Amino acid sequence: xxxxxxxxxxxxxxxxxxxxxxxxxxxxxxxxxxxxxxxxxxxxxxxxxxxxxxxxxxxxxxxxxxxxxxxxxxxxxxxxxxxxxxxxxxxxxxxxxxxxxxxxxxxxxxxxxxxxxxxxxxxxxxxxxxxxxxxxxxxxxxxxxxxxxxxxxxxxxxxxxxxxxxxxxxxxxxxxxxxxxxxxxxxxxxxxxxxxxxxxxxxxxxxxxxxxxxxxxxxxxxxxxxxxxxxxxxxxxxxxxxxxxxxxxxxxxxxxxxxxxxxxxxxxxxxxxxxxxxxxxxxxxxxxxxxxxxxxxxxxxxxxxxxxxxxxxxxxxxxxxxxxxxxxxxxxxxxxxxxxxxxxxxxxxxxxxxxxxxxxxxxxxxxxxxxxxxxxxxxxxxxxxxxxxxxxxxxxxxxxxxxxxxxxxxxxxxxxxxxxxxxxxxxxxxxxxxxxxxxxxxxxxxxxxxxxxxxxxxxxxxxxxxxxxxxxxxxxxxxxxxxxxxxxxxxxxxxxxxxxxxxxxxxxxxxxxxxxxxxxxxxxxxxxxxxxxxxxxxxxxxxxxxxxxxxxxxxxxxxxxxxxxxxxxxxxxxxxxxxxxxxxxxxxxxxxxxxxxxxxxxxxxxxxxxxxxxxxxxxxxxxxxxxxxxxxxxxxxxxxxxxxxxxxxxxxxxxxxxxxxxxxxxxxxxxxxxxxxxxxxxxxxxxxxxxxxxxxxxxxxxxxxxxxxxxxxxxxxxxxxxxxxxxxxxxxxxxxxxxxxxxxxxxxxxxxxxxxxxxxxxxxxxxxxxxxxxxxxxxxxxxxxxxxxxxxxxxxxxxxxxxxxxxxxxxxxxxxxxx
Length: 819
Ligand SMILES: *[C@@H]1O[C@H](CO)[C@@H](O)[C@H](O)[C@H]1NC(C)=O
Ligand SMILES: *[C@@H]1O[C@H](CO)[C@@H](O)[C@H](O)[C@H]1NC(C)=O
Ligand SMILES: *[C@@H]1O[C@H](CO)[C@@H](O)[C@H](O)[C@H]1NC(C)=O
Fold this sequence. Notes:
By secondary structure, the chain is an alpha+beta fold. It folds into 5 domains: about 20-150, Orthogonal Prism (Agglutinin, subunit A), CATH 2.90.10; about 150-285, Orthogonal Prism (Agglutinin, subunit A); about 285-425, no CATH class; about 445-580, Phosphorylase Kinase, domain 1, CATH 3.30.200.20; about 590-815, Transferase(Phosphotransferase), domain 1 (Orthogonal Bundle). Helices cover about 20% and strands about 30% of the residues. It is globular and about 85 Å long. The protein starts with a helix and ends with a strand. Bound molecules: 2-acetamido-2-deoxy-beta-D-glucopyranose (NAG) (3 copies). The site of one 2-acetamido-2-deoxy-beta-D-glucopyranose has 4 residues, from loops.
């Protein structure tokens, strides 16, 4: 019965969508036409072509959009600058092979200008391919294709770059607004001056560089270079220069330049019927073109971010001090090019190479030849390898001042020309080590002297001293350098007065206290307009609390995701430090999951939704921006639930940022919660995104079983929850792990899949665990999963009965770890 009604539903929908007498064609021939209301559908039904009106607009445009998935998401528009104002539009193919859009008032709205060479005897057709490409064919020979004229979307199979024979430049241009597909202000272009590089522009202004191709990828684009999802290609020869990517699996991705200037790689997630951001180009301060001026280096880990290259000093020290770095740096000692041994080169390791518009290259030269070539030419300022694969090959040299260099986690070194005398000075002071190594040695020396007290400070938590609180809207810290960091983040937030907050919380009354967060009590509050808030107040006692408070601000102020709890504002008044969040009416996941009665109200669909939400929240933290974040204290207690039971990750007091691909960080201070901590972190103090993956796996098993990992106890063996899940899995009885209360609501395939993914996440070795990205994909796809290996910590020495366990055990612990 139910199935029948579904069929009926689809039948009715189709009748409404497709006007009568129209069946889905993918091809029309000469002198045939497509009227407004009719469409072409590609063979695999992936794409559809027809007339549409974007957003709130009433104008009609001919475009191509997704059909099978994400119905109506437009990927290409023909007449983007010449809209039709009524429904009289039609697409027609002329006998000569010209694709024309006509409308009542305006006989030729748009034309492809394609023609068949050598007369029109051979029949022409226009066909919409399943790749999203609209092609005009003449006896199977392509005479025109929409892929040559991209708009704001770059699809797999498209070329991005320049045809050197015809001069055709294939670039991306943004829409004006979501309602207007005409050419907007933003564009991405493969610039072929000097060594080709991909540039992002706003009008004529250069906004950022995704960097030139280095053999593996664009050196400034944060994507996994080797991956299972797509293959990239960069071709450079006398005829053409282009970049292209092809999907390797059934994953659906597109690159889009949004109307407000963001370049995003989006990926379709079938289960949630939504696009997620797979990668986001140009997201941090150092992505702003030439922020640090000529010969400056931008580094996102430093405050301020700009420094001069070795042998250079600020050209205008006053401006530089005032954080205006645009005029950059100048040489301390002039070059002496005419003297054969007058100049040498200084190596700068791990960089996104400088702007290449004034550069010269040769693909077959070696690095040694490159050095000679640079030395011989007095305008040469720097050289490097063109292709960093296999130890490096090719030669790239710069003939102008070096602009837009940034420290970056790639295996690319550049060699900067400087006076030999300057170079001696540098070598003496560095004694052969680069700066990083020196710092590392300093750290090692210090830490072996005071092993228990020294904790390495990373970008995310730097302030060591208690700040002197806020004066007239500014937060002063003893540690001057970090002040700007603090304030920069607070600037994004709304400021509330202590009076307002006190009124909202009934003067912080115990009655309104709803919990104890990482660094102090949490209160429920209500603004005068009725909006509910949660108020976290830093207890005045501890340094740790202060650190975590600051950490929370830094990590979460700029993050926005529906699966992260939202920070609404802050209040600083004399000794009070207060953060204000959106209020979560269903408290936290542990409050539901581990309570006998409340857990009954949590059915499978809700739990599965929670698993997904958490996964997407973590994925966002790990890879959305280049300032990626490791949470370090993921547990059911830190997952809050809103009124619709949507999960939101909270408590960033222990989180750390990391940069690029260097994702393993070592610490002497192990913080986290027993039962959720991965072995490499607990034992060796090494944490990475894979430690969060481990905690995620533990949570999934808890969500499915309804048992706390640490309190789990089985009559027959000493295995904990992970061990028990593993044992059942090996015996093919995984389904027995599921809480009995889910019997009525569960979808067995989903439960089994979730358990399987969880077991992959809690494997002993970090490198065996999937990334969060793979975990999300595994949860939604139907493909076979790899076999998990034995989990970590599957056995407890003593098996506790829940009632015998002291209740303080759920607290976040801090372990100082000495080696
Ligand atoms: C076709 O040619 C006309 C006239 O030269 C021009 O205005 C129009 O932009 C061309 N169409 C395309 C798609 O390039
Ligand atoms: C590139 O370098 C190779 C080897 O030095 C040389 O034979 C070749 O002519 C150079 N090509 C160009 C275009 O300069
Ligand atoms: C340096 O090399 C570039 C590129 O080959 C060339 O255009 C320029 O004339 C050379 N300059 C000198 C002084 O040799």
